[in-house]
Amino acid sequence: MVALTLANLKMMARNRQAIFWALFFPLMLVVVFGMFDFNGVGVADVAVIDQSEGPRAEQFRERLKAIEFLDLEFEEITAEEARRKVEDGDLGYLIIIPELFDDPEGQVQSDGPAPVTLLYSTRNPDRNQLVDGAVRNLVSDIHSESGPVIPSQLLTSDVIQVPEVDYFDNVLLGLLGLGIMTNSIISIAVRISTFRNQSILKRLLVTPLSIWKFFAAEITAHVLLALVQAGIILALGVFVFGGHINGNIIWVLLVTALGSIVFLNIGFVLSAWAKSPAAASGMGNAVALPMMFLAGTFFSTAALPWVLPQLSLALPLTPMLVALRDIAIDGEPIWHTWPYLAAMGGWVAATALAAVKVFKFG
Amino acid sequence: MEPAVQVENLVKRFGSFTAVDGVTFSVERGEVFGILGPNGAGKTTTLEIIESLQKPTLGRVSVLGLDVQSNAAKVKARIGVQLQASAYYDYLNLKEILSLLGSFYPSRAEPATLLDQVGLSDKSASRIAELSGGQKQRFAVAASLVNNPELVILDEPTTGLDPQARRNLWGLIREVNQRGVTVVLTTHYMDEAEILCGRLAIMDHGQILALDTPRNLINQLEASYTVKLTMDQPMTLAQIEGLNGAVEVVQSGEQDGEDPVAENTYLLRLANSPSALQAMLEEIAKAGLGLENLQITPVTLEDVFLELTGNELRD
User: What are phi and psi of A22, to 5 degrees?
Assistant: First the structure.
């Protein structure tokens, strides 16, 4: 028994590629989880329109900047534009500093300074409370320096009602993307690696079958499987757990198919590098799992530090999830998601090129 | 008609290692051509170049009159290949695998007929994992025939099989050849090469050492028989040397190839003459030696190989 255990350890140690990926994967998860700020509510993106431009408004803006969880933009944006963005969920908050903000003596307006408007949607109630409180405190703080104020009159909250979005609906689509991604990457990488190890690929190579037909057949079969998988995940989510699909299911499936192709291509690339099916599985996990967290499958990527929220946009799962949510939750037509589809198209082209370049039959 | 295979000055290098070193031969249509050699001799590399799986470093290979490098797809469509170690899809049954492989070719044979030819009709709904070693190899031959090929290339078709399964497969290869299909096979079994092949190339270290019919290769040897004498007492050197007609003597305690020679046993290689044997037996009787056992075996390709390479077949 001791001899066998030792021999097993020796064999495991010699399968270096598999051991590397086996270690790499849990370490990667520790790093990824460590980066999330689960205690906070994430960073709130805020646009500020300053109609006053007076010294007090200036002070207000400076002190807004100092609030850690607010990510301020002072871009030129009209109130209508900003309102639309908030409604669509592309912007969290809009602060409008009124023209008469700097009117402490009430020369123009007798009953005190004009109120600041804070515009937001009902999408994120916890964060709304926090932002509303912070901005309200700051406004009254600034005005109270020149005399007594009535805090409730200093800030007007303008709340846009958006259709109720269940956290589960978000997660359901996240799970759909996750399922398609892991299944496509890992199953193709392991399958092709197994075929190569067993010389099945070599056997195919002695036939006149052209290589592109081999790829096309593998991709078609897996995409069909992905669509069935998507159907099952969504049916379970909607009919058993009460999720909602507000958009056109055909568009949802189209985005699913496109995403599946990207991940299958990634699987082909990994299979070319993996020396064994075990290594292929490890590599697949190492690629899929960090992406699962960094692309906002379960949690908003806003909870990520540093440039990671922006970086997450560069991952192929991110545009897939955004397009899926826009279509399925917000009920948008597929052509409204074109920037994300274009990003996915770019990924299809890039990964196909890489797969053709590195793929080996023998 | 062009030969089935024409190989001219073929060289294949992998870095500094030369796997095939200037090989030239041709295979006529309708023959069974064997390449015999130990592992690492360059047999498989040569076949893989013929199959257009690998590119030659130097030299030219044409199959059925077509240059393999410029006509890979056309060549592949007309030949059948059984690789040395190849598996088939786990989750398809035999009939489904043959239908799938057949679908890659312009001309295809009926899976049921192929399975019948290799004696696997009753296994058509089985999967590969359910087959014995011999059945797997027979299936591999069937799979190489899915496109009604003019030439089949079998790389070590009987390696790892028990004697009965090997004989069974030899019968199958002969049947395929009798239907007019040219067969090129590699083997490291001497008996197989001798029984199956019309002509034989003996290869070692990437080179062809001899190429002829098995009979001619054997006839080239000075000795034609091996006589194994087991005596009732040890023989002296003078007595051994007195045995007329012995080309080579291997004594008790020495090695014959990898096998040690038993006590009081002597192996004598004799020239091709019955009188040599007669003279030898007379010498033994004259010396008053008692003979406990006598075995006479004709020289085989194994001896030819030993003579050519100075080595046993390496496994």
Answer: -65, -35
